[in-house]
Structures are given as structure tokens and as C-alpha cells.
Amino acid sequence: MATIEDVARAAGVSASTVSYVLSGKRSISAPTRQRVEKAIQQLGYRPHAGARALASSRTNVLALMAPLRAGVEVNVIMQFVSSVVLRARDYSYDVLLLTQDDVSGAERVGAGSMVDGIIVMDVEAQDARLPSLARLRQPTVLIGLPRSPGTLSCVDLDFEAAGRLALDHLVGLGHRHVAFVGPPPEVMARHTSYADRVLRGFSGAARDAGIDARTIECEGTAPGAAAAVDELLAHDPALSAVLVHNESALPHVVARFAEHGRRVPDDLSVMIISPPEVATAQPVPLTSIDIPTERVARVAVEMTMARIDGDEPAETRLLTPVVTDRGSTLPAVSP
Amino acid sequence: MATIEDVARAAGVSASTVSYVLSGKRSISAPTRQRVEKAIQQLGYRPHAGARALASSRTNVLALMAPLRAGVEVNVIMQFVSSVVLRARDYSYDVLLLTQDDVSGAERVGAGSMVDGIIVMDVEAQDARLPSLARLRQPTVLIGLPRSPGTLSCVDLDFEAAGRLALDHLVGLGHRHVAFVGPPPEVMARHTSYADRVLRGFSGAARDAGIDARTIECEGTAPGAAAAVDELLAHDPALSAVLVHNESALPHVVARFAEHGRRVPDDLSVMIISPPEVATAQPVPLTSIDIPTERVARVAVEMTMARIDGDEPAETRLLTPVVTDRGSTLPAVSP
DNA sequence: TTAGCGTGTTGAAACGCTTCGACAAACGAT
DNA sequence: ATCGTTTGTCGAAGCGTTTCAACACGCTAA
Questions:
Q1: Domain A159-290 adopts which CATH fold?
Q2: Angstrom distance (rounded) from CA B43 to CA A323
Q3: 20 to 30 Å CA-CA from A135: which of A69, A249, A288, B250?
Q4: In chain B, which residues fall in CATH 3.40.50.2300?
């Protein structure tokens, strides 16, 4: 492999000049720059990442913690992951993927100076990883909102507002018999940040509206969905609208309601919180509060970059949810 | 951050001794080792990855190319990705995730000495990336089987044998009216390695058996599946068995057959090629040829490691497919 | 004419580790 | 007692960059 010295020799300059051509940190005369660039081309020179990291204390690598826990929506995870990778490239960064659900990976790559920053997914309300992350030299950005972020930056859709907004949307259509079909029990049990928050927003808004809105956890399987739907209808046969926050269960939920003779949207209004791709890919397109995965990922990367080379203070950004009406919610019929 | 010198000073030895304690490449007396280890603990020392890479020409990082193209099964991809990450850890390796579908990412991290080896997913029959990959200093292992692997290692389920095996299984049960529901058109058009191979195996075996077995591409959506099923039945109303190699379409295919009054398994035998999790998660568990994602990933990592520090020659390993009968295929009823 | 300044370039010192060759000490065999 | 081996440790070179201080040069301003 060609080194910077080889390039310098070929161009008839010193190594430091080559370095300055590459980094642009000092002005270089046009002729010199051209000779250097030509030498780089001809030799196919690429700086050695390790040497560069050693000298500059910059790796141009980001760590992404994406624990693949039970009950998570793989599609959504993957959307975040690929968006983060894509956005990181805008800043000439690569992404190291960590999938363990403890913090050991982050400690290893952080303390070992393998990365300049860390993005963390699937955050829990009381996330055990946060103290260790806060101790690292590298800035950390959470996708999600724990109870006490401390000095860590956070970004996410405002899921609490989303829950509230969904309920208000349904109530605004005149629905008084409303329910929430949530993530599977294991996700709730972990107090996964988004799950808690939607629930809080939805239930809080229901209380404010004076409505008894039932909420239920739901496995992402056909039998699980059937059980959930059956229970909801048993509890309130007059049920006329549901909010679903569980992509895997969604088709089965809709199917089960159909078996009970409730068709969307005439007999039942359905909303979902999910990426738009999911809401539109259903047999009947669904009114939804879209999870803007691409935007969240972009902001996460931007925040990380700002903290890497700014020393910007930590910050929490919650994106405002919006209802996209796709026709699966209709005004309630008067009793 | 503590450096190796700090540790050496604290332990009253030289830096090289600390290095040898860490690497085990020379024998160190027990007392010395203990002092060094204690110093490491107390200082919380972690070797600087860049410095280590510079000195040793080893990064302990693997690149994983996982292009997220249209029509790929995200679940399967994710299973591979997480298995690769997990297995890499067995060798103290981390994984850098590349998602671009061209080879530029691999060139960057390879030529820049960011990684020691490269694992490539979603390989096409005539994959344009192969020549560049072969030129890199780092060993590359393909998950998939291109037409001419050259000096690159390959590992995969033997999809051609799988196609053949599936057809033989169905014919063995007496079915003579058999069809294949394959991946979506965009996957076929790319000549994605596994897609081509299943098709070849299935069609070849059908020819050998003297059967006219229809094959059809299929979108992963409900309308797409309906269209495919309708066409198959129109072409051969006596159809009694299908092989599906398309997870997204699977539930819709089964549903559409049901709408035509064909129930699994009594009216229709169904097999699928997929990871076992998918086959078992269906309302009716399906007889399948399992894609052993975990095993393929493990072998891919092992092969990469062997070539990193062996200088083993390239090798192709095809895992033998096996039919797992879950009761969704029954003997054909005599006409 | 000289002092001062900006521009472009360079040499050398880090950065933190691995590894080679050397060497001292301890040991066993003669 | 001597020689050769083995064992444990060390010093120093080298890995390929970045970056700082210094310098040469040509200019402008006084």
C-alpha cells in the first residue's frame, strides 16, 4: 500500500504538504495541489485509518447500538439502521453495529477509541445503560426518551403527543368507545420508551375527555391478536375505534375484527402509529401517525456530529406528530 | 485516557511487557503478570484501537455489506446481520455495516485499512462487485454463489439442491400438478443468486420428472399474491401443490388459495423455503426447507477468520438442504 | 532601504501500540 | 566449573498520520 511518503516523493513535496492538501487546513498553491492530487490518483493512495485516528484522535466512525430484543419490529429497526448509515456517510462517517443489549459493546468501542460518537436505539424509561454511556468520552445520542436523560442528547417522535393526538382525532370524530392495541407484553415490561409514552398520552387524553378507553398488550401473532380483539369486544361490544401501535399484530387485528363482522372503516375506525410504508401497504390504507424514521435518524446523526466537533451541549428534540388521514377513520354513527 | 506507558509505570515494568501480557505472545512470570493486570484494572486501561491497528496491521473489524435493495426480505437480512455480528464477537471482532449497493464502501474501508475482512450479502449471479473485491488486500466471503467466484470464498444453503429437493418431495407424495411461487420480479431481474438457483433446481427436477411445473414471480403484497395465485389456477385448475420462496407473499398466497376454496393441506400442499421461524409462525405451520441463517453466518465468519490469519485458499461451501415436514404437505389424492 | 507581513512549504515531534533483537539470570547437563 | 538453553524482561525501531513551530520568499508600506 502506498503511504503518504510515497505520494510526497512522487509529487516532489513533503508529507506534511500532502496532508494539508488532503485536509485543506492550510492554503496550498494551485500547482502544488495539482501535482499532489495527481500523485494520489496514480498511486491509488488512501490514508491509513488507524494512523489517522492515532494522530488526529478522530476515527470517522460512529457506533450504533441496535439491540434486537424480543418483540421489536425488525422493519422499523432496519429503517433506522439504514437511515443512520446513509446519513453518516454525508459526514464521511462509517457505522459500527452493536447488537448486544448491554453496554459492554459501547464501552469497548468507546474506551478503545474506535468511534467518535454513539447512537443508541430501543431506549427504556429507566435505561440501565445510561450511566455508563454518560461516562464515555464520546457523545451519545439516544433515539428515544428515558425518564432522566442527564447529559445525553435525545431525539424521537413525540410519542406521548402522538397517543394524545390519536385519541383526540378519534374523539373529534365522535367516537366514545375507543381502545388501544399496544406492543407485546415483553416490550411493555421493559418499559420501552416509546411504548410507555404512547400509552401515557393515549390514556391521559382519554381521561381528559372523560372516556373509558381500554388499552391492551398484544403479541404480534394471529392467535395473540385474536385474543386481544376478543377481549376488547367482550369488554365493550360498542367499540367503534381502535389505535394500533403494533405492526406485526396489525393485519391479524384487522382480520379478527373482520371475523367479528367489523369492517374497516364502516364498522370500525382504525388508526396506526407506524412508518408510512406500513400504513400504506395494508389491504386498506390506514389513517396513521407516521413514525418519521428517516427524519429521526437524520437528526440523530446531525446531533451526534454537532457534539463531536462542536462541543454543543446536550439537547432533546421531540418531533411533532401529525395525523395522516387515509380514510380508515370515519365519523361515529350516532347510537 | 491511560496509555500502555501509564500501565507499565504503575506496574513497574516496561511497555513491551504490558503488551506481551495482553497478547500472550511471550511468556511472562506469574507475579509480573499479576502486577500488570492489577494496574490495567485500576487504570481502566483499554488499548487504543488505532494505535494497535497501525502497529499490528490488524483492526479486529469486519465489514458487512448488506445492501437493502427493493424486494429483499428484511427479516432474513436482519437475521444474517445479527448472527454475523454475534459470531464475529467470538473472535473479538466488531462489524462495520455497509449498506450501499455498489462496491465503493468496501473499497474505502478496505483500502483505508479499516477492516481485516469483508462479508458480502445479496450476491448476484454476475455480480459487478466481485472484480473490485478480488482486488482488495482483505479476504472476502460471499453469502451466495455467483457464476464465477474466482478467488473469493462462498457459503450458502445449496438453493439449487433445495429447489430440486422440494420438487422431489412433492412428486414423491404423488403430486403431478405443481407450481413455484418465487421472489418478486425485481429480485429475479437482478439475478439474485439464491433466486436463480432455486428456480433452476426446481425446474430442472420437474423436467427430469416429466412434469410441467409452472413458476411465477410474485410481489410481496396482497394484490401481487392474488394475481399470481389466480394465474396459476387459471393455467392449471388441477394444481395440488406449491413451493413458495417468498416470505412476504406467503400469507397472502395462502389466503388467496383459501378464497379459491383450496385449504392447506387438504386441498393444497404447501412448502416454503425460509428460516424456520417464518415457517412455524404461520397460522398453519408449514413444511419447509429451512434457511439456516445462523449457521450460514457462522460459517461465513469462520471462513473469513481462517483466511485472515490462515492464508487458507478460497473455498466454496454449500450447506445441504433438508425437508422439515410440518404437516402442510399431504399425499396427492388419486384423480 | 528596511521592517513587517502574508503565503506556501517543510522538518520534526508527537500519537500509542507491537515486535524484534538483545540480554541477564537461572537452570541443567557435562 | 563450564557451556548451552530456556525463561523473562527490556530498549528501540517502526507503523502512517497530523500538526506545530519555523522558515523562505516575495510583497507592501514606511
A1: Rossmann fold (3.40.50)
A2: 53
A3: A69
A4: 61-158+293-319, 159-291
Residue A334 in this model has a pLDDT that exceeds 70: no
Averaged pLDDT for residues B169-185: 97
CA of B325 to C1' of C10 (A): 74
Q: Which CATH architecture has domain B159-291?
A: 3-Layer(aba) Sandwich (3.40)
Which residue from A196, A262, A205, A277 is spatially nearest to A229, judged by alpha carbons?
Answer: A262
pLDDT at B2 over 90: yes
CA distances from B35 to B21, B24, B29, B180 (A): 10, 15, 10, 66
Q: How many residues does chain A have?
A: 335
User: pLDDT tens for residues B42-79?
Assistant: 999 999 999 999 999 999 999 999 999 988 999 899 99
CA dihedral B248, B250, B256, B262 (to 10 degrees): 180
For B61-158+293-319, the fitting CATH number among 3.40.50.2300, 1.10.10.10, 3.40.120.10, 3.30.565.10 is 3.40.50.2300
- Asked if A98 and B78 come within 8 Å (Cβ–Cβ), the reply is no
- Mean pLDDT across chain B, nearest whole number? 95
What fold is seen in the domain A4-47? 434 Repressor (Amino-terminal Domain) (1.10.260)
Mean pLDDT of A6-12: 96
- Using CB atoms within 10 Å of the CB of residue B216, give its burial: 0 to 12 exposed, 13 to 18 middle, 19+ buried: middle
Interface test with chain A among B1, B4, B114, B136, by most A beta carbons within 10 Å: B114
Q: Check pLDDT > 70 for residue B335.
A: no
Q: How many Cβ pairs closer than 8 A exist between chain A and B?
A: 113
A194 touches strand D (CB under 7 A): no
Q: What confidence category does residue B332 fall into, taking pLDDT thresholds of 50, 70 and 90?
A: confident
In chain B, which residues fall in CATH 1.10.260.40?
A: 4-47
